[in-house]
Design brief:
With 253 residues, the protein is of the alpha/beta class. 41% of the residues lie in helices and 18% in strands. A seven-stranded mixed sheet has the order 3-2-1-4-8-6-9, with helices on both faces. A three-stranded mixed sheet has the order 5-10-7. Strand 2, helix 2 and strand 3 form a beta-alpha-beta unit. Helix 9 packs across helix 10. The longest helix is centred in the middle third of the chain and has 18 residues. The radius of gyration is 17 Å and the shape is globular. It starts with 12 loop residues before the first strand and ends in a 5-residue tail after the last helix. Its main location: membrane.
């Protein structure tokens, strides 16, 4: 059981999970956090941000004693920021509900943030449930333009101090897509001002589902060029039509 909303204990780390009808995945994500918490020396809370959930997601999250927040906006930046606003931890980790962290993930976060040398960072060792030529090509067509615009950053799961998250304004709520890459770039720049590095955890794996490919096909992204353009057009990430297709509508979750 995690530290609940009613606890008065000092909390070291808050894990933020945005959820939209995640009853198939949320327990696996929470179980992985529980396992990773065993090697973490401080107290941990998990903040689950419910976004228009109509299934058993809330029931499952409450059974783990998670802190529950509600935010119905079709905007991942708004959803994640709402979770951080409710968080009480000194450190913040943001993970997706269909991802699972390795057992040594939180101990790696603890080691890097405790060193004082890192502003925060992302994950370098991300493993998908399966791979195919279509999945690889889809990832490349999305990630390459982002790398060109945002430089050497890592995403997947973010970790940083809450004070630094707030100092850069959290996730940009004007962006509906690529908000994760934008956040990483701004966090990296903030770290440079403080003489700290943007880190990438490579010694702990993040496992993520292929549910979008399973539902829409491994080449499904190429049947929706508007989504690709949503990533490519200047990296502004403000195309509501592309964002709705990619994240918020008809995801068969």
């Amino acid at each position: 059981m995690f530290i609940g909303a009613d606890s008065s204990e000092k909390i070291k780390l808050s894990v933020i999970i945005p959820v939209h009808n995640e009853e198939k995945y949320i327990a696996g994500c929470l179980d992985s956090i529980q396992q990773a918490a065993k090697s973490f020396t401080g107290t941990i809370e998990v903040v689950v941000v419910l976004n228009r959930c109509e299934d058993r997601t809330e029931e499952i999250a409450r059974s783990y004693n998670c802190v529950i927040v509600r935010e119905d906006a079709k905007n991942l930046s708004v959803i994640r920021n709402a979770g951080v606003k409710a968080a009480r931890g000194e450190w913040i980790v943001s993970i997706d509900a269909d991802s699972r962290m390795a057992e040594n993930m939180l101990s790696e976060v603890e080691k890097l943030l405790s060193s004082g040398q890192m502003i925060g960072g992302g994950i370098g060792a991300i493993r998908m449930e399966r791979v195919s030529l279509g999945i690889i090509c889809s990832l490349l067509v999305v990630l390459l333009p982002l790398m060109l615009k945002y430089g050497n950053i890592s995403v997947g799961m973010f970790w940083c101090r809450r004070e630094d998250f707030l100092a850069i304004g959290g996730f940009n709520e004007q962006m509906l897509m690529t908000e994760d890459a934008d956040f990483a770039k701004r966090l990296k720049k903030h770290g440079q001002k403080k003489g700290q590095k943007f880190g990438t955890i490579r010694t702990a794996k993040l496992f993520t589902s292929t549910r979008k490919f399973d539902t829409h096909g491994d080449w499904g992204l190429f049947k929706n060029p508007g989504i690709i353009l949503g990533y490519w057009t200047g990296g502004k990430g403000k195309s509501k039509q592309a964002a709705d297709k990619a994240y918020y509508e008809n995801q068969a979750r």
